[in-house]
Amino acid sequence: xxxxxxxxxxxxxxxxxxxxxxxxxxxxxxxxxxxxxxxxxxxxxxxxxxxxxxxxxxxxxxxxxxxxxxxxxxxxxxxxxxxxxxxxxxxxxxxxxxxxxxxxxxxxxxxxxxxxxxxxxxxxxxxxxxxxxxxxxxxxxxxxxxx
Length: 147
Fold this sequence. Notes:
Elements: H1 8-18, H2 21-43, E1 45-50, H3 54-67, E2 71-77, E3 81-88, E4 91-101, E5 104-113, E6 117-118, H4 120-133
Antiparallel strand pairs: 1-5, 2-3, 3-4, 4-5, 5-6
């Protein structure tokens, strides 16, 4: 895994040259955004937390795999974790779920082309489709209203 920390001195140089607090704040914000983007790209995974139970995410994942013509080749689930693996001709999609709270589940998706290639677009689309299939439950409270 490539470590972006070698780039840190390049981001710190402008505030040192300008000596301004505003410039340092702007550069700090840019560093945070850059590093979060780099972590996403270097890991080859997309991740999101949903306010639904793990079984709800599991069902949505199976549905999305079928809609996308991915064959569920493996699947394991217990009370707090789950993993589904879907395959197509040269693509493997791994959906990992873990319970954060009783009603909150973290979802991580990795799409692998061939043996080592990462397919960020497909991983993102799987996550998007899962989000579309996870509708709020009737017992969920209504969203907060702005005043």
